[in-house]
């Protein structure tokens, strides 16, 4: 005969199993509904596109029944894509090369060549190139080699340099391009 503790444990496990099945079912159902809505929006956009609009390589694709693989691919593309704002004309200002030692290890030298991307109608940034170089030099002297290792380290370095450039130019700098980074 089962003890009261064993019966209550079996009841708790049955409750957890039912709650898990319900959660899985809701997740699958929600995913299916969302994929149906995305496919409807994608197919109506294709149907609205004119066929042969004169642009090479751009053609309307006839609608075919979506498969599970195309639904998953469309869902991944639609969630990852974000609208890109039009930025207008830009100009590139090359900064003079910066060569300095870094904080740790102290015998390590770093050479950085970078360029700023500024709005085409912005003035005054050309006059601040020297100050921007000084700011970047001061920052580079404080970093450690472990901070700039790997792709994420390079991204953090770029973001930090961009933040400094935006502060110095009151937001006129749109982006910074690291052309060369040599660590010796």
What is the strand and helix layout of this fold?
Elements lengths: L3 H45 L19 H13 L9 E5 L3 E4 L7 E11 L9 H12 L9 H19 L4 E11 L1
Antiparallel strand pairs: 1-3, 2-3, 3-4
Helix pairs in contact: 1-2, 3-4
Characterize the structure shown.
Helix 1 crosses helix 2 and helix 3 crosses helix 4. The protein is of the alpha+beta class. Strands 1, 2, 3 and 4 form a four-stranded antiparallel beta sheet that branches. The protein has four helices and four strands, in the order ααβββααβ. The N and C termini lie far apart (76 Å). 48% of the residues lie in helices and 17% in strands. The chain has two domains: 77 residues; 94 residues, Band 7 domain (Tetrahydropterin Synthase, Chain A, 2-Layer Sandwich).
Structure in a nutshell:
This protein is of the alpha+beta class and 184 residues long. It has helices at 4-48, 68-80, 129-140, 150-168, and strands spanning 90-94, 98-101, 109-119, 173-183.
